[in-house]
UniProtKB/TrEMBL annotation:
Protein name: Sensory histidine kinase/phosphatase NtrB
Matches recorded under Gene3D superfamilies: 1.10.287.130, Histidine kinase-like ATPase, C-terminal domain, PAS domain
Function according to Swiss-Prot or TrEMBL: Member of the two-component regulatory system NtrB/NtrC, which controls expression of the nitrogen-regulated (ntr) genes in response to nitrogen limitation. Under conditions of nitrogen limitation, NtrB autophosphorylates and transfers the phosphoryl group to NtrC. In the presence of nitrogen, acts as a phosphatase that dephosphorylates and inactivates NtrC.
Cited PANTHER family: SENSOR HISTIDINE KINASE, SENSORY HISTIDINE KINASE_PHOSPHATASE NTRB
Keywords for the protein's UniProt record, in alphabetical order: ATP-binding, Hydrolase, Kinase, Nitrogen fixation, Nucleotide-binding, Phosphoprotein, Transferase, Two-component regulatory system
Gene: glnL
Catalytic activity: ATP + protein L-histidine = ADP + protein N-phospho-L-histidine
Source domain of life: Bacteria
Keyword Nucleotidyltransferase: no
EC number: 2.7.13.3
Length: 354
């Protein structure tokens, strides 16, 4: 009866004997650890997941002392190499002789909550910067129009062509500032949505990058051909993916340490995936991964802000515009970076028509 109840829990539960061999795990634990209970029964706990030697010693101490303990934000590694962030509670089960007979481990994943928190922060930051830029753009464009208009009137009053050159400079620089403000605001039109194949869009971007890179890097493709067509604006989606992929290309080409320069494009279909507060039945994930030097930790939190760039000659608009485009499609862009691996994940709902 107890096993039936535990089998229906959403919490992952394992039972170990005194030799730290697995005697039982429920379906939730099977799913979390990606293992089969039939194959894992009787094996050491390290065959199901491994943290470090200290964690094994802590389990042995719990058996001897009979005292439970909880570990927060543990980084564990699964047999397939995947890493999980989780909390776990260890509870010794006492027998009739008042000694430990086995221990119970309850696993609570933190990855999901951490990702939701990061997504919420990204969305709030994006909305805040968007409103700030819109207000700033309004304050800039109004006097800019007046300056340009005044320069045109002055130019007409001058008969000397040499003097007209100065007013032309004012007009051209006013136009340049106006264009910069427009770029800060991102796409000015609503998406012109139509059904499209995401891999066709990606291949168009790959073609442009290959020409720019002049065969100085390799593009590796890992596509999921089962992904259904998206409803999206093709030109805007190309622009968003191009901005991200071009950043990866520039980081690689400017890095003298990386010999085998690679950009890997991965596509996957994710089911029952949450973006922000909304759960989607099916989501397309496009991952753009490069093996360059990585993004400095202080820059990661402000990466999608306008005018933020890690390159001396960068404008800091590419990622901000890409996030705006994807946000218009009810999606989101996330970034994880470490040395020799920077990964941008673009999530686009498949079933949502915007």
């Amino acid at each position: 009866m107890h096993n039936v109840l535990i089998d229906h829990l959403s919490t992952a539960v394992l039972q170990l004997n005194l030799e730290l061999r697995i005697e039982y795990l429920n379906p939730a634990a099977e799913m979390m650890l990606a293992i089969s209970r039939r194959r894992i029964y009787g094996h050491k706990i390290s065959q199901a997941f491994f943290e470090d030697d200290d964690s094994i010693n802590s389990l042995k101490s719990a058996i001897k002392s009979g005292y439970p303990f909880t570990k927060r934000e543990a980084d564990i590694t699964l047999p397939n190499g995947k890493k999980l962030l989780l909390d776990y509670t260890v509870t010794p089960i006492m027998g009739s002789t008042n000694s430990t007979e086995s221990i119970l481990i309850e696993l609570y994943p933190r990855d999901h909550m951490k990702r939701i928190s990061q997504e919420d922060e990204l969305i709030v930051n994006h909305q805040t910067s968007k409103e700030l830029v819109r207000g700033l753009a309004h304050e800039i464009k109004n006097p800019l129009g007046g300056i340009r208009g005044a320069a045109q009137l002055i130019s007409r009053a001058f008969k000397d062509e040499a003097l007209k050159d100065y007013t032309q400079v004012i007009i051209e620089e006013s136009d340049r500032l106006r264009d910069l403000v427009d770029r800060l605001l991102g796409p000015r039109q609503l998406p012109q949505n139509k059904e499209l194949n995401v891999h066709k869009v990606i291949e168009r971007v790959n073609q442009l990058i290959s020409v720019e890179a002049e065969e100085r890097l390799t593009i590796v493709r890992d596509y999921d051909p089962s992904i259904p067509n998206l409803i999206a604006d093709e030109s805007q989606l190309i622009q968003a993916l191009l901005n991200i992929t071009r950043n990866a290309m520039q980081a690689l080409l400017e890095d003298d340490q990386t010999i085998d320069k690679q950009i890997t494009i991965v596509t996957r279909a994710l089911r029952q995936f949450t973006i922000g507060t909304k759960r989607h039945r099916l989501v397309c994930c496009i991952s753009i991964i490069d093996n360059g030097p990585g993004i400095p930790e202080p820059l990661l939190k402000t990466l999608f802000y306008p005018m933020v760039s890690g390159r001396p000659d960068g404008t800091g608009l590419g990622l901000s515009i890409a996030q705006s485009i994807v946000h218009q499609h009810n999606g989101l862009i996330e970034c994880n970076s470490e040395q020799h691996k920077t990964e941008f994940n673009i999530y686009l709902p498949i079933e949502t028509i915007v």
